[in-house]
Design a protein that fits this description.
Distance between the termini: 28 Å
CATH architecture: Alpha-Beta Barrel
Largest sheet: 8 strands, parallel, barrel
Number of strands: 13
CATH topology: TIM Barrel
CATH superfamily: Aldolase class I
Order of helices and strands: HHEEEHEEEHEHEHEHEEHEHEHH
Number of helices: 11
Radius of gyration: 18 Å
Structural class: alpha/beta
Number of domains: 1
């Protein structure tokens, strides 16, 4: 109800300005105790990656890149929160404007470009947060790091976030960092996963705890590419796949204002494309690696569709912009009632 009143005001603002205003408002309301937490759904826990998730509906990476609003976001009823993408060094991302709404399609286009304040700032913010639920941290590489040295950036982030994360997601699929998606190629991914899994084992010995690794993939993959990625995830014993990131396709938005803007498309037009990848990936993984489904979830029915396709958990982002916190409750209800 409150969001339905606030949305016209927020949508009157430039999209990225509204984004920062909303995070600031959540922090302020949480800080003064005026933000009651949403009640957790009963009997809705899931165990995935060896982690107990209070409910299967999570916040996708990208909304809170620097981990500045973890406590406020936790009050919306999510079963888990993923922050980032974070890079080793701070970077401004691409020039503004770089975030665009397409309301008629329930969509966003972004070319933010991993804008963040660096992994050290994120670590500080996570340490200050009161949240003790399931926290995923999404890591990437700096834009000016050559692709052949990308593993160095992922290793630097992994080492710093490992003690604080419930799981770590390796983002190799943003369309807004040049050549990043090449890391989904078989040789590149094989080398990267081998390096990260070896470091994961070392860190587990150092810290006395095993932190699972997930890999986030693109929706713009064909069946052969999905099969190849699945084979590598199984061989390296990666703990989860996140499917999917945003798409470079423009199906469903042709002719709309901003449809020609470069960047990744999310929201309703991504739903079918993402669900296809979830389904094909789950089939190829043969139950050995769980899938987290994300992309175009705008309703409880959409969340159920991802689970039916083979996902174990789901994540929201763009749907939250259009529907507000009510979407979290609706998805939880849909998935818990169906359990």
């Amino acid at each position: 109800m409150i969001y339905s009143l606030a949305r016209p005001v927020l949508f009157a603002l430039e999209a990225e300005t509204a984004h920062h205003f909303t995070l600031g408002a959540l922090r302020a309301l949480d800080g003064v105790g005026l933000f009651p937490a949403a009640p957790a759904p009963a009997a809705c826990a899931r165990e995935v990656m060896g982690i107990r998730f209070p409910n299967p509906v999570g916040l996708a990476a990208g909304l809170d890149k620097n981990g500045e609003c973890i406590d406020g976001l936790a009050r919306l009823g999510f079963g888990f929160i993923e922050v980032g993408t974070v890079t080793p060094r701070p970077q401004p991302g691409n020039p503004r404007p770089r975030l665009f709404r397409l309301p008629a399609a329930g969509a966003l286009i972004n070319r933010l470009g991993f804008n963040n304040e660096g992994v050290d700032r994120l670590v500080e913010n996570v340490k200050r947060a009161r949240y003790r639920g399931v926290l995923g941290i999404n890591i990437g590489k700096n834009a000016d790091t050559p692709l052949e040295r990308a593993a160095d950036d992922y290793l630097a982030c992994l080492r710093k976030v490992y003690p604080l994360a419930a799981y770590v997601t390796v983002n190799i699929s943003s369309p807004n960092t040049r050549d990043l998606r090449q890391l989904q190629g078989s040789a590149e991914l094989d080398n990267l996963l081998g390096t990260l899994k070896a470091e994961q084992r070392r860190l587990a010995d150092v810290h006395g705890r095993h932190v699972p690794l997930a890999v986030k993939i693109a929706p713009d993959l064909d069946a052969a590419q999905i099969d190849a990625i699945a084979g590598l995830l199984r061989r390296h014993r990666v703990e989860a796949a996140v499917a999917t990131n945003t798409t470079t396709a423009r199906d469903g938005v042709d002719g709309m204002a901003h449809a020609g803007e470069p960047g990744g498309l999310s929201g309703m037009p991504l739903a079918q494309r993402s669900t296809r990848v979830v389904q094909e990936l789950a089939r190829a993984l043969q139950g050995e690696v769980p899938v987290i489904g994300v992309g175009g979830i705008m309703s409880g029915a959409d969340a159920r569709e991802k689970i039916t396709a083979g996902a174990s958990l789901v994540q929201l982002y763009t749907g939250l912009i259009y529907r507000g916190p009510a979407l979290v409750k609706e998805c939880c209800t849909a998935l818990c009632d169906a359990a």
